[in-house]
Design brief:
four-stranded antiparallel beta sheet; globular; 7 strands; 87 residues; mainly beta; SH3 type barrels
Length: 87
């Protein structure tokens, strides 16, 4: 996954919720563009959850991004080869 792909997801008009698939098998859902902050270098992001907790993510560990159906549980579509956008 590239910084440009993440920027495209963040700047989509209208914003579409998406899921970050990590290389270790974990998933992080982003329900609103304000729930992600990027480091100045662009190498890491902070993903905030609804309960005010957060995770710091090294973008080199992101396997793919997936657009959600808006409810966070179904697929509306995916970007990239094989249904996912690969790193």
């Amino acid at each position: 996954m590239t910084v440009e792909q993440l920027k495209a997801m963040q700047q989509a008009q209208p914003f579409l919720p998406y899921r970050i698939h990590m290389a270790d098998g974990r998933d992080l859902d982003v329900q609103h563009r304000d729930f992600v902050a990027r480091s100045p270098s662009g190498r890491a992001i902070v993903v905030y959850k609804h309960d005010e907790t957060f995770e710091v993510v090294d973008l080199r560990r992101v396997a793919s991004l997936e657009v959600l159906d808006g409810k966070g549980n179904g697929r509306r579509g995916r970007s990239g080869r094989g249904g996912k956008s690969k790193a």
